[in-house]
Design goal:
- It is a single chain.
- This protein is mainly beta.
- It contains one helix and 29 strands.
- Strands 16, 17, 18, 21, 22, 26, 27, 28 and 29 form a nine-stranded mixed sheet that branches.
- The longest helix is centred in the last third of the chain and has 10 residues.
- The protein is elongated.
Length: 369
Amino acid sequence: MKKLMVGMALTATLATAVTPGFGSIGGNQEKAYAATVTYKVTASKLNVRSGAGTNYGIIGSVVKDQTLSVVSKSGSWYKINYNGRTGYVSSDYVQSSGTTAPPAESTTYTVTASTLNVRSGAGTNYASIGSVTKGQKLSVVSKSGSWYKINYNGRTGYVSSDYVQASATASPKLVVDSFKTLGNAQQVILVTADNYDTKSAKIQTFEKVDGKWKQVLTANGVLGQKGFALAKKEGDMESPTGKYTIGTAFGRYANPGTKLPYRKITSNDVWVDDSKSSLYNTWQQKPANGRWTSAENMDIPAYDYGFVINYNESRTPGKGSAIFFHVGTNYTAGCTATSKEQVVSILKWLNPEKNPVIIQSPVSELDKY
């Protein structure tokens, strides 16, 4: 496995995103760091997870004495840069050395003086290279004594912290925060498309932790060949919109680690799509023996892993059957699909005790939920 910055001391730095409207000065940062803080792993092996909790999927690991690129801290978890992606590790197994712990998750730095000199170094004895004005937002990199190191018009500058107000800001509002129909659901899979006619989808997962929604995953996905359905019908090659509970997980291999009820597919397994059959929209085993005239074979690569979306549970004839979340990257016959890696990650994350639901909708109709 590729290792993270082994043998290199970390100079913890702050992301320097610029807030629109403030030119090259500005920005809300995740955290301002002291330039001398180093974070090293103390466990022989430490899992890196996709979210801040042991219920999130493992995306890799780090080893003892490895130096971590820490972005921020959330509770007892460090958010880190891990092989080009975001990961989380338990702070119980990470030792930090330095004078300053990571500050608030999101901090805004605002000038309070009418005019404040920006200097070339951390002191009044350094030359002024420009100035900032009252109310201006600063892109702060780190703090050294009573001076903030900032990004100033593409170069490094320093301003006195006596004339800068640092204030924590609320995390950006998530789309699920506005949903009114979630009831007791604490996990949500959101599948959206730009319109009804596109087969391309965006898949996002959210989990409520300590009463607040947090985003866990974002991935690309696909819908039915003809997109979303206004009114789903058997064989229309469209995926149903709506909010549905999560059914049985399945796969052609052993349980990958999901907490959902799991059923391993055999060569005899089929899903009945014969609207005239009393077994319509149920999982059965061959032979048919006159019980149905058509059924979908389950022992196929698309169903290497997946789960049942509880659509048309009343089994209304002709309303649609065999609606799954499964493996696929092109299009489906009415299901929702994404890469095998993402399907397995979602299966491991899903927890029936958190009453998970899946919502499928064009972006323009999310206000229904």
